[in-house]
Amino acid sequence: MTRYHDQFTDIVNFIDANLDGELDVERLCKLACLSKYHFHRQFSSHFGMPVISLARLLRLKRAAYQLAYRDDAKIVDIAMANGYESHEAFSRAFKKHFNKTPFQFRRSPDWTPWHSKYEPVIKLRTMIMNENSDFKVKLIDFPETLLAVMEHRGAPNLLGKTIQKFIAWRKISHLPPNKSKTFNLIYDDPAVTGPENFRFDVCCSVDNGVEPNDFGIVSKTIPKGRCAVVRHIGSDESIGVVVNFLYSKWLLDSDFEVRDFPIFFERVSFFPEVPENEMITDIYLPID
């Protein structure tokens, strides 16, 4: 990795961790070891936008997660928490990036317009993970785990609506993440699967089978057995690099074969409760 990639990684991580405060450009210049003039030129060249614009994007992304998945937060409070002085200013900025007002996005989250504007950050995070792809793999015996599952079938960009419904069911069922572990079952690679065929399960651990319900929640089980596990710290935008590493380099170099069960994630900590670069996800590959 080049020195500039290291520097810009530090900068994005610093902004991620300090979204609540004013952007300290002097501090960012010191992190980059550049004068203010050269810093702004290098940053804009690398990301295709000024540093202020990137900070605004990261705040809007956090706001979008809060709108979609934290329905107890008022829109005006989300606006203020993300640096906007009024509901109106927040709504204008949000609609410019998401093609929906905050109220419309909360009712029906769709991330499609966002990704084109956020592409430089996605590329940086993916590149960083690819260049540091010697991940630490542990072998564990995973216990049989009963799950309550909401199945998402369809375009990945509409997954947010499924997650919203699942969160609502968890609240009604009194199964918060601090009492019930959160899992995802990953059946398909969105990079090679048509949107209409994409399958992804949103799950939590339960002690008993799920009763019939109006949410479409069903029971499934993670079978006990050997798994290779990697702890991923950081954004979901680069998590595919770890998945590809397990399926390709690690599996090919090992004496194991995959079991007849999909790769799955355990969500240990969540964005926006923690900064995006501090999210923790354990990635399990079932093996024999």
From TrEMBL:
Keywords: DNA-binding, Transcription, Transcription regulation
Domain of life where this protein originates: Bacteria
GO molecular function, one term: DNA-binding transcription factor activity
HTH araC/xylS-type domain location: 9-108
PROSITE patterns linked: HTH_ARAC_FAMILY_1, HTH_ARAC_FAMILY_2
Pfam family for this entry, one: GyrI-like
SUPFAM superfamilies the UniProt entry points to: Homeodomain-like, Probable bacterial effector-binding domain
InterPro entries: AraC_E-bd, GyrI-like, Homeodomain-like_sf, HTH_AraC, HTH_AraC-typ_CS, Reg_factor_effector_dom_sf, SmbC-like, Tscrpt_reg_AraC-type_HTH
Gene3D superfamilies with a match to the protein in the record: Homeodomain-like, Regulatory factor, effector binding domain
Identification of the protein by name: Helix-turn-helix domain-containing protein
Source species taxonomy: Bacteria, Pseudomonadati, Pseudomonadota, Gammaproteobacteria, Alteromonadales
